[in-house]
């Protein structure tokens, strides 16, 4: 889950850096506010399509996450 936690942390950091609310970011990502909040808290896995959409909108470099190891879920 290390990748999910790091992605969630970057989401919040990058969103705040551009002074966007969670509501504005969710709207731009075309997902519900509740879903966005759960992703940003690390409580929901966004899936590939939504993760790429969020990364593109917030300008998060997904390549920076490739050095992290993900533990398999039990």
Task: Report what the structure shows.
This protein has 74 residues and is mostly helical. 59% of the residues lie in helices and 0% in strands. The chain has helices at residues 2-17, 22-29, 33-40, 47-58. The mean pLDDT is 89.
Structural class: mainly alpha
**Euclidean distance between termini CA atoms:** 11 Å
Q: Main β-sheet: number of strands, strand sense, barrel status?
A: none
Summed up, the helix count is: 4
Low-pLDDT windows of residues: none
Give the overall shape, derived from the CA principal axes: globular
Mean pLDDT: 89
Q: Helices and strands, in N-to-C order?
A: HHHH
- Work out the radius of gyration: 12 Å
Helix content: 55-70%
User: Care to count the β-strands?
Assistant: 0
Proportion of strand residues = under 5%
Helix/strand layout:
Blueprint: H1 2-17, H2 22-29, H3 33-40, H4 47-58
Q: Notable features of this structure?
A:
59% helix, globular
What's this entry about, in short?
The protein is mainly alpha-helical and 74 residues long. The protein has 4 helices and no strands.
């Amino acid at each position: 889950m290390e990748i999910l936690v790091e992605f969630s942390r970057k989401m919040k950091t990058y969103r705040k850096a551009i002074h966007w609310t969670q509501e504005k970011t969710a709207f731009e990502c075309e997902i519900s506010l509740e879903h966005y909040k759960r992703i940003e808290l690390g409580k929901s896995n966004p899936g590939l399509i939504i993760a790429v959409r969020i990364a593109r909108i917030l300008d998060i470099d997904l390549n920076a996450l490739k050095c992290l190891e993900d533990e398999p879920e039990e």
